[in-house]
Amino acid sequence: MTEATPSHAGPFDVAVIGGGVVGCATARRFALSGARVVLIEKAADILEGASKGNSALLHTGFDAPTGSVELALMQRGRDEYLAIRESLNLPLLETGGMVVAWSEEEEAKLDAIEAQARANGVHDVRRLGAAEALAREPGLAPTLRAALLVPGEHVIDAWSAPLAYLFQAIAHGAAVRRGTEVLGGRFDGARWRLETSAGAIEATSVINCAGLYGDHVERLCLGDASFEIRPRKGQFVVFDKPAAKLLRTIILPVPTERTKGVVLCRTIWGNLLVGPTAEEQQERDRATVEQATLEALIARAVEILPGLAGMPVNAVYAGLRSATEQKHYRLRHEPERHWLSLGGIRSTGLTAALGLAAYAAERLGFAQDAAQHAAPVPNLAEHEERDWQRPGYDAIVCHCELVTRREIAAAFDGPLPPTTLGGLKRRTRATMGRCQGFYCGAQVRQILAERAHG
Ligand SMILES: Cc1cc2nc3c(=O)[nH]c(=O)nc-3n(C[C@H](O)[C@H](O)[C@H](O)COP(=O)(O)OP(=O)(O)OC[C@H]3O[C@@H](n4cnc5c(N)ncnc54)[C@H](O)[C@@H]3O)c2cc1C
Asked: What's 345's domain CATH number?
């Protein structure tokens, strides 16, 4: 499927390659500054790469490398998310986070973690003794020794955010070409001509936001790659809604030499999430889940939060981080060739996306326009009012997640209609509940067939 939103047919000022969260934020930022933007995505819909499956935490950067570009861009991205979220109707679950020490060895590390947080400008962290930590989270195993409270760690909606960024870009005239793979490119000294699976696209500058294929796209267009993607898989377990009542705060591990440990947190949709693992792999497109790993995740989660024992699991999934051979972000600016790569955005890109976008606009000399059309997204968060709670919703289609017919219709009538079941799920929550589409799947597929392919 190829498409072009009508505002500009090209040539463009800026071509953004990749419709992950970083590409969506980047397209928004350039469109807001009045640039003629095209976002090019090879998949049938956006958010099919690393941005499809993550933990959805809005980080403070308390444990990021002090003085790093990653830290600066995470904090910038976070600040902008908090500033724009109301105008775009983006949710925030203000949970706070707690780094919990379960052994003497882990407890000894809390001082250094606290010092790093303060060095990173996160000054509201606070040490909690065992009694105080258990008073805050009575469901945790009483074997905990101490904790570091990080009040600014929050949970957001990893899909509504990039959708809102791209909707706003479209409201400012950006074109989106889905189902369009960049196959190569040539720079003639003034302008790029990108060869794609759907014809040539011309643009003055190119921003490479191709995530797990960032090195590949550099090689295709520049002839060499400045980094090498080494995918790192993270597997997750999603517990059913009652489990979310067991916990308010994000429970973070103390990292050890052997393991990064397991994170427990509520999701924006009212579930409880456990994960992720960190597993190196070659494959860039496939993130499988393995029974033994999932069982180990569940076992550790039950040790941490004993009330989880016997709780039903709704779903399991895995995401791929676009890690590279080095730990830091791989940003490559080639001013003479009008090229910028935002690469290696491995595990903090949801938080940093708006910061990375601002960085890109500054690098290319685009100032932000003051006038902005907001393009609010429908609320999908469980703790805010949902569509089924308002009159006139027609009918409930997905009963587990209480998704209405009106919400599904709105997704198809919106600025970037879904083209796949996954895309519809990410816009509405349909099929995400405890039956995983067993009851509503046929109806949802029929609506998709009629609206997207009819
Ligand atoms: C397990 C896990 C947990 C995480 N938890 C968090 C978290 O809690 N908080 C946080 O801030 N971050 C988190 N992250 C990180 C975050 O998800 C990533 O940093 C972010 O999604 C990267 O986005 P991206 O846009 O760079 O890449 P992607 O989402 O991979 O987007 C790149 C896009 O480019 C497209 N593309 C590739 N090649 C081409 C081509 N030739 N032509 C056209 N299109 C192309 C792809 O199809 C893809 O859609 C986590 C990641 C994982 C995997």
From this structure: 3.50.50.60
Q: Are residues 211 and 168 in the same domain?
A: yes
244 lies in the same domain as 311: yes
Q: How far is the CA of 21 from the centre of ligand 1 (A)?
A: 6
* Residue 431 counted as domain residue: yes
What is the model's pLDDT at position 226?
A: 96
307 C-alpha to center of ligand 1: Å? 33
Q: How far apart are CA 90 and CA 80, in angstroms?
A: 12
Per-residue pLDDT of 38-86, as tens digits, reads 999 999 999 999 999 999 999 999 999 999 999 999 999 999 999 999 9
Q: Please give the residue range of the domain that contains residue 345.
A: 1-92+153-228+326-376
Pair (98, 88) in one structural domain: no
Q: Cβ(46)–Cβ(52) under 8 Å? A: no
* Rounded-to-5 percentages of helix, strand, coil across the chain: 35, 20, 45
Q: For residue 8, what pLDDT is reported?
A: 61
Asked if the model's pLDDT at residue 5 lies above 60, the reply is no
Distance 161 CA to ligand 1 centre (A): 13
Does 21 map to a domain?
Answer: yes
Domain boundary among the residues 278, 303, 321 is at: 321
Measured distance between the N- and C-terminal CA atoms of the chain, rounded to whole angstroms: 13
The pTM score is 0.97
β-strand partners of 186: 193
What average pLDDT does the chain have? 95
Pocket test for ligand 1, best of 160, 180, 213, 264 (most atoms within 8 A of CB): 213
Rounded distance from Cα 148 to ligand 1 centre (Å): 29
Helix then strand count (H, E) for the chain reads 12, 21
Q: Is residue 382 part of a domain?
A: no
Structural domains in the chain (count):
3
By most ligand atoms within 8 Å of CB, the mutation choice from 51, 153, 342, 351 for ligand 1 is: 51
Q: Which residues' Cβ are closer than 6 Å to ligand 1?
A: 17-23, 40-43, 48-51, 54-57, 59, 181-182, 209-213, 217, 234, 276, 319-322, 345-351
Task: Supply φ then ψ for residue 197, to 5 degrees.
Answer: -65, -10
Please indicate, yes or no, whether residues 139 and 238 belong to a single structural domain of this protein.
yes
pLDDT of residue 375: 82
